[in-house]
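Project outcomes to date are best conveyed with an example. Our students and postdoctoral researchers have been running inverse folding experiments weekly, and each run begins with a structure described purely in tokens. The record below, which covers 402 residues, was selected by the lab manager from last quarter's runs and is presented without edits.
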């Protein structure tokens, strides 16, 4: 017996996704506007698209089909708070109908080695996971990360709720590669020849098993031949010659063999539980606190972006539920870390900002305030760039529906 996720409107949602995708192949459908004129974006520029992401993603296909390495989205949850989405109703079926064509278009935009991170709380997590399996293929599911977002708090009657979920799919599971992060202890950072290098002193061991406290477990260079033989010595000599290994005086006239790696290239595999608190603080740091509810922490999104672009510093990153623009700042921070040139594409509707703080800023100065979320997104990008990448340029465009 087969199993399937079904809901009212499913067939029509898939048909819509296919039709929009086809429209773009035929060179029809929505296009971008900049200052009122048609705009065709370059394939490698930072962009903020202001408008509904359904025509936005469709328009993007013309120039970016198969070019996006990382998609991160934090879609409106089914709480009725997300106003743009609320217009569509708020039950599981309408959430699935809302998401289906958007995820189909996102998949078309992804590179063959691309990945998508979908960040959700308990409300839609289970539904979204099944929907994701259907769109990306269960065989391309890479699992679910846990984002620990708070130490306490939350108002659930059952638990103190401090985490949510990040479901991950690849366009093709065998092409995405490992998710990497900066290497942590036991390695040590040292400056060698003016460069930050990670130094691991524990690369050669005298034997396996437990060591008594105080007993040296490292195999000294001078003892390799006797303990491990000529082949091992030749291997180590080759790595010493290539610069991957170095010798470090270790007492008694002997030398430890240490591995040295440029700090920005030293990686470990990402752990599936990621702790990152306080997205509101990131906005406060930029003088934009208290205007937008529940921004995600930059640190989390930076970790996710970097994990799939560790050795791909020119990659394109897409977030089509941009909110306050966390993903743009995360891309800037990932670039700052390794001197990279990753680009961001953000899409955000000009949905009114309704917080008291946002309204009082508009009342005080309509030109400087933030009547719409997309205005805040743009200002956040400018302020983050001033701090992290003063040379950064980004194009603000709108979507024109035919
Ligand atoms: C949960 S928030 C994302 C917050 C974001 N991750 C951050 O850190 O600030 C979801 C955002 O999606 C936007 N949104 C909802 N429906 C949309 C649509 N159809 N097109 C574009 N943006 C939409 C909402 O206005 C809201 O800003």
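After processing, the design step wrote out the following sequence:
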């Amino acid at each position: 017996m087969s199993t399937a996720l079904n809901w009212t409107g499913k067939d029509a949602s898939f048909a819509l996704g296919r039709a929009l995708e086809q429209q773009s192949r035929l060179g029809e459908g929505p296009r971008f506007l900049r200052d009122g004129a048609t705009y065709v974006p370059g394939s490698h520029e930072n962009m903020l698209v202001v408008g509904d992401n359904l025509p936005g993603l469709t328009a993007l296909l013309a120039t970016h089909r198969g070019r996006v390495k990382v998609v991160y989205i934090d879609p409106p949850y089914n709480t009725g708070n997300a106003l743009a989405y609320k217009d569509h109703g708020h039950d599981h079926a309408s959430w699935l109908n809302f998401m289906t064509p958007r995820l189909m278009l996102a998949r078309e935009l992804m590179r063959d080695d691309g990945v998508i991170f979908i960040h959700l709380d308990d409300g839609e997590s289970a539904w979204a996971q099944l929907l994701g399996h259907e769109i990306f293929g269960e065989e391309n599911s890479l699992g679910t990360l846990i984002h620990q977002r708070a130490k306490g708090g939350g108002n659930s009657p059952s638990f103190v709720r401090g985490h949510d979920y990040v479901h991950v799919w690849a366009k093709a599971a065998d092409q995405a590669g490992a998710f990497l992060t900066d290497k942590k202890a036991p390695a040590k950072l040292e400056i060698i020849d003016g460069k930050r290098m990670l130094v691991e002193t524990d690369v050669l061991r005298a034997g396996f098993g437990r060591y008594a406290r105080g007993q040296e477990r490292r195999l000294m260079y001078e003892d390799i031949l006797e303990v491990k033989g000529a082949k091992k010595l030749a291997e180590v000599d080759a790595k010493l010659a290539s610069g991957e290994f170095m010798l470090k005086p270790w007492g008694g006239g002997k030398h430890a063999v240490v591995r040295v790696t440029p700090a920005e290239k030293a990686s470990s595999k990402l752990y599936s539980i990621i702790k990152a608190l306080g997205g509101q603080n990131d906005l406060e740091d930029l003088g934009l606190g208290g205007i937008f509810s529940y921004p995600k922490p930059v640190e989390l999104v930076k970790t996710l972006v970097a994990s799939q672009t560790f050795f791909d510093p020119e990659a394109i990153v897409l977030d089509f539920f941009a909110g306050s623009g966390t993903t743009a700042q995360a891309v800037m921070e990932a670039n700052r870390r390794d001197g990279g040139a990753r680009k961001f594409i953000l899409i955000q509707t000009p949905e009114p900002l309704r917080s008291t703080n946002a309204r009082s800023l508009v009342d005080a100065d309509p030109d400087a305030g933030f009547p719409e979320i997309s205005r805040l997104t743009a200002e956040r990008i400018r302020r983050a760039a001033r701090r992290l990448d003063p040379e950064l340029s980004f194009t603000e465009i709108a979507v024109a529906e035919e």
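Confidence is low (pLDDT under 50) at residues 79-88. The two ends are 44 Å apart (CA to CA). The training component of this project remains on track.
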